[in-house]
Each structure stands twice: as C-alpha cells, then as structure tokens.
Amino acid sequence: xxxxxxxxxxxxxxxxxxxxxxxxxxxxxxxxxxxxxxxxxxxxxxxxxxxxxxxxxxxxxxxxxxxxxxxxxxxxxxxxxxxxxxxxxxxxxxxxxxxxxxxxxxxxxxxxxxxxxxxxxxxxxxxxxxxxxxxxxxxxxxxxxxxxxxxxxxxxxxxxxxxxxxxxxxxxxxxxxxxxxxxxxxxxxxxxxxxxxxxxxxxxxxxxxxxxxxxxxxxxxxxxxxxxxxxxxxxxxxxxxxxxxxxxxxxxxxxxxxxxxxxxxxxxxxxxxxxxxxxxxxxxxxxxxxxxxxxxxxxxxxxxxxxxxxxxxxxxxxxxxxxxxxxxxxxxxxxxxxxxxxxxxxxxxxxxxxxxxxxxxxxxxxxxxxxxxxxxxxxxxxxxxxxxxxxxxxxxxxxxxxxxxxxxxxxxxxxxxxxxxxxxxxxxxxxxxxxxxxxxxxxxxxxxxxxxxxxxxxxxxxxxxxxxxxxxxxxxxxxxxxxxxxxxxxxxxxxxxxxxxxxxxxxxxxxxxxxxxxxxxxxxxxxxxxxxxxxxxxxxxxxxxxxxxxxxxxxxxxxxxxxxxxxxxxxxxxxxxxxxxxxxxxxxxxxxxxxxxxxxxxxxxxxxxxxxxxxxxxxxxxxxxxxxxxxxxxxxxxxxxxxxxxxxxxxxxxxxxxxxxxxxxxxxxxxxxxxxxxxxxxxxxxxxxxxxxxxxxxxxxxxxxxxxxxxxxxxxxxxxxxxxxxxxxxxxxxxxxxxxxxxxxxxxxxxxxxxxxxxxxxxxxxxxxxxxxxxxxxxxxxxxxxxxxxxxxxxxxxxxxxxxxxxxxxxxxxxxxxxxxxxxxxxxxxxxxxxxxxxxxxxxxxxxxxxxxxxxxxxxxxxxxxxxxxxxxxxxxxxxxxxxxxxxxxxxxxxxxxxxxxxxxxxxxxxxxxxxxxxxxxxxxxxxxxxxxxxxxxxxxxxxxxxxxxx
Length: 951
Prior knowledge:
The protein is α+β, with helices and mostly antiparallel strands.
C-alpha cells in the first residue's frame, strides 16, 4: 500500500486498444529515417453500466491470458479532506486492508497473495484512492467478494487496536519518505505553492500530528461518507464471461446500500504573482535547488502543451537544462523535471542537484537563463515530435498489462475519473497531437516564469521533522461503536462468511523460446506475441559486475553506463535524439553475472531502432569526455550512498559477508577503485568480456521466427569480437557467529535494518523449495516477518526476506526500514522469526497458499514483452533449459512441508548472520547491546571498525 502522486509518466503509461494492422513498417534506415507517420487509434472496447446503488462498472474483455484485473477507484483523496484531518484518505487506504466483517482480520492481502495475484496494491493520489489486483481468471469471484466486503462491511471489523496499528504503519511510511534525501525540500515546495487550507497543501500521507489525531469515530464517519458504491467506479479487464460477471456483481455489490451524496469540491487556487523562496536543511551530501510552478489542470488544452514544453526543458535525456548543466558546464549531478496535472490545478517542478564544490548560487542564474531563452524561443519541432512519440509509445506499451499502474483497467478508470468518459483515449491522443511549437512556447512563456515560481534550496545540515508522540494506549477505549446496519440486514448477509471457491484451475502455457545460433556463435532466442505491435530486443552476455578484480570494482558498471551514451558516429545528443523520435530508448544494465543492452519499440520503428541498437553494441564510442563525466557522477553517487540508511546497509552488508571479493564489493565500486579507473579500461573490459560466443540476442513480441532470423543476421551477424576473459568467481562467505554491525547516521528518522547470510546459486535443485519456504517466511505481504513487524507491532512500513541467487553462490537477506525507537525490538522479532522457522510447523494452509501463489502468479510475470525478454535472459545467463518456466509449476506442486523444513534448516543460518543497522547511533546502540543479539560493532561505510577517539 502506498501513496502516489499522479504524474505525467503515469498518464503516459495509460493503455489503449490498438489494432496491429495500423502499424506499417518504416522503410528507411535509422539515423536518416523520417519520423513514422501518425497512427490513428481506436478507443478501448468496453461496456459500462451502473448498479441501482450507484456503483459504476466499466468492463473490457481480453482472453489473451488467463488473468483478470480488478481496479476499484473511490472518488476521494486529499481533495476531500479538511484542515486538521489531512492524511485521512491515505490512512483509509491502509485501513481497507485490515480486515472486514466476513473476511477476517488482516486476511485480505494474505488471501489475495495466496490466490496468485500480481499487481496488488492500494494507492492514494490527490483526487482519488484506488485498490487493484490482477488475479488468475478462476479467482475473479474471490476478488469481488473481497472488494465488496471492505466496501460494505469494513466498520464491523474496524476497532481502535487496528486503527492504532495503522497509524503507526502510516507514520512509518511518512518517516520512510522523510528519510529520503531531499524529501523535506520537496514537501516545502508544496507548502509554498498552496495555502495551508488548500487540499493539495503538503503531503498525500498527511502530517504526523493529523494522522496521530485520527480517532475511531472520525474514521468511521469518513468511510460512511466516501467509501460507498455511489462514490466509486469498478473497472474489470481480462478473461471473463460478461453474463457471469454481471451476476456476480449483482450478488456481491448489489446489496450494499447507497451512501450519502458527496458534495462537489470547489476550491480556487490563488495564483503566485511574486517569487517565493525558502531554504531547508537536510542530511544530504549535495545541495539541490527546486523550482515549482502552478500549471494547468489535467486534460485541459494547455496541460498538453505544458507537458511537451517540460519534456524539452528538463525531461529528455539531453534536455535544455541537462545540456547546459550536466553535459556542457558539468555543474550538476542530475536534472529532474516533472509535471503533475490534477483536478483542481497542476504543479510542475524542476530540481537540480549540484556537483561537489558547486554552489547553488552559481547554478541558479544558468537555470533562469535557459528558461528565459526557452520561453522566448520555445521547443524545436524535433523536441515536440519526440515528446509526442514518447507519450504515444508509453500508451501502447501500457496495453500489455491488464492491471496495475497504466494498465487497461487503470486507464479506463483514470479517464472516467477526470473526464467522465472511459473512451477518452482518442481525444487524449488528438489533444497531444495538436500541440505545436507555438502552443508549447506559449505555455512555457505563460507558466514557467520567475515571477510565478517557488524556489526551495535544500542544503546540507540538520534534518528537522515535525514528529509527534504516539497516542496513549487507552485512546478511544470508552468509545461505543454502533453497527451501521440492522440485525435483519446482517442476518441476510451471513452467506458472505463463505469464501468463494475458485472455478476450475486456469490452464496456461509459459514461454518456451525458439533458439538458433548464427555462424559467429551468437545465440538467438525468440518468443512470439502478436497481440500488440510491440517488439523488445535484448542482448545478454555472461559477464557482470563479478567479471572483474576487486581493485577494478565499478569498472563493469561504468563500462555499461558509458556504452549507451554515444557511438563512433553519433554523440550523446545525436543518439538520444534518434532514440526519442521513435518514442524509445536503448538501455544498458548489469547484474552480478550478466550484462544486457535492451530496448522496446513499436514495430513500425524496427528499421529505425535496430540499426541504432546494433550501432550501440558494435561501435560504442567510449569517449574520454563521456568517461570523465560519468566517472565524476559515479564518484558522487558513491558519496551520496550515505544519504539513505537502507542504501548504507545494503552497501556494507555484502562486504562484511564476502569481504574483498566480487560478491562483497558494491557494483558501483569504491572511491579508491573508481578514482583509479582510466578511459582506456572501458573498451578493453567490453571487448575482452562480451562477444557472440558468450552472448544471446533475445527478441520478443510482434515478430515471427523468420523475421527474427533476418534481423539477427542483418544487424549482428557480422559481429566477430572474441571475448577472452572469464568471470572472477566469488570465494566462500566469511561466516561468523551472528553479530550486529552499526553504521552511524545522526538524525536519521528511521533505521535501515538488514540481515545478511550465505545463500545458494541459481542452479541449486533446492531453489523451488526455497522460494516456497521464503514466501512463508518473508516473501509476501502476509509472511511471518511482515505480519509480525508491520501488522502486529507497527515497527515498520514493510519488512521482508529473500535470496539473491548468483551463478556461483548467493546471499540471504532480510529486513526493512524500522522506526528508530523500535530498532532493537524489531531486530529481535525478525531474528526470532528466522530462528524459529526451521523448528516450527508449516501449516497446510501456509504450504498450499505459498505453492498456489508461486504457480498462479507465473502468467502475470509474462504480460509484457520486456518481462518475457528478461526471463529469457536469465535462462541464457544461468544455462537453464529452455523449458525452465514451463516445468516450474510442477516443481512447485511437488514441494512438501518436509521439504520446506529441510531447506529452512539447510539454507537459513540464523546463527551466522551479519545484522547491519544504519541509523542514529546515539538512539539505537545501547538498546541493540541490551537485546543481546550478538556483539555490536560500529563500522564505517567501508565496513571497517570505527576507532573510538580517546576522550
């Protein structure tokens, strides 16, 4: 469950229905090709109807996969809150998962997880709150039972104990944000853009004081006012029968009474007529300047022009601000610009983080000079074309998913929420296509000016947060709760206590790629999916961050980052422009065992993107200028690791476990190793580690086997590099009796808690058993660790466990962000769950739930061409059989309770863990010592013991 501000990216990820025949292949080669012609899009095929109680239902049938997305939007958010009651909508988002009358306390998410759901969450934005899950299609009735029960029968299961717990959880979520670098400055920006009584003032989560002041009577009143069928819209997309669905909707939602009318919100946002400024201190390494403006509301004509302008100004890779500050003058570590268009008004901001030694007063004049010039000239035609292409591609890419952010169901609901028309897509696309250079210039000139701006400087210093004490334990103890329904109505609804039984198990076929090899030794893997005109191409090589010596730590990652910057014939600006005019990008990634270069594009851009992709792979520039710039950025990134307690813990923990080996070194290296790197080492690493003999070209999506063969041969058939270096293998972990390593972060609002221990390799035959075991221990929301630390004790926003499996070993890890004063008890509880697991009984329900979840969620892992490509990359990197995923369900089914206990005894090592805590030493050290979890050793960011100064 999370809060979420609606962004331009979220809008751009919206899904649409597109006929593949509408996309004709481009004929010209890339860098010289004309931009593909505009594509006319049909509307999403949907049906809508309204139940007698006012619940609006929007449906879209799609039988491609045995999945169904259920997406319920309540038309309530901070927009509907009043001063002193901020955060209620978000608090309620959490309360809705606490259990309802017929489902049971804290059972909702556990039931959903065990049913094999994917894309499960609840989110709050300024204007709405939504709840969604993508389920196996045979579990549709289960989803409707769950959603209807918390809509109509939450009050009966809601008590003061659950409310107190979720106040703690929500405030932990807020602290989690406050612990992020620059979060305080971003919130200050909102405080200055809006007056205090405005719904958009502050933070979606609300203030600590308001959340803590929430009382059971307030919460019940809020639910009865806003969480009603007549204030909600339910979108369902996927594999279902419409007749049966309508019967189920009538059964589950029909009896819920209509609620009171929700009054419209008519708030006028006062304009900013003179620049406002503020300075905020935070425990950050580098200063940041944020500039915000009030901009057009969602789906207004000017909002589209403003979105295009912002992309050109600070959204593109080599935007105007990036070019001036990151590339040319190299004064900034990063530039980020974003546009949030909401119901009442929009708000836009650009943030620039300075490089070390650079003052904000040196950066700000340059920012305003760039903006002034941009306002006067507007974007170029190429910049407008690129922004439109990216928006269109994102919409179509979103079609691949039924649920989740930007999926089909989410899009239907979003259009309905803001325009009243689920079929708004044609108008949406037309409005974006109507943007011109002139309209984008006019929008920039009208809104993005110094006089209309709010400026916040975030500088290194003390982090000051407005926290408040917890409420007394007896809060609300004397409140008498009244059932909202009559006894007769409750009796009539007794049937709801019976959890729906799934219909016949869904049948699905997981991808088995077709594989062939080119004459140069390059493996090619192909998985066809012709529903949409989307193609994903990925080159995977068996050389990752482990393919180097310790003194060169950071070299492989820096090489892959530099790879996609430029080619021998295209500099960074030209390459970026060529990619963006197709609406796509070429990305490089690296893991411990493998490297990859990947891209996803609309099929009609094949003749543009494939030459670019091949150019990046075959002719990387590795220029001195790009190396110098990215090396500086890498060193600053390492320095900024201490801005975030969880990053600190995850950086130090593996080193304490594996020492000076590949598995123990951070992927971005150390200050010492990166400082010594030279530009000539990048192409040397690339050519000695990556070539056709240890690589695979993975092509997925709207491509036939014959087309894939032609593409592979045409673009990479001539690749003849012969890698000569092997991977540097890891040594065995440095196993010691469990102890606590403490990294001091003065003023941190939370502690980053992570336990590290020996793991196992991907090839281990125990892996399916371990995955089932870990699902129960800490691999799901309803796991033992999370239910203990979050739901029972309110110590954290979330805690989990997992296994990082590599080719030659692995790591077990568990933890989360913990409330500072709860660091020791949370660590004790987490360790208790790990220690007890091997000796405890795994119940039949836990085992069945874990196995069902692992099996039934598999189809959801292949909804997109990119996800399929990633799975196939893993098959190649770890030399797994091509039938690996097809055979996985049967391996999960074969796991027994004895298997779970056996792998827990074998692969969990509670007496050999390194417990890393990164937080405020003055507040957590003594309690950790008192907890007697093991020796407590204070270490630095290199994992070295801190030598205490003599007093």
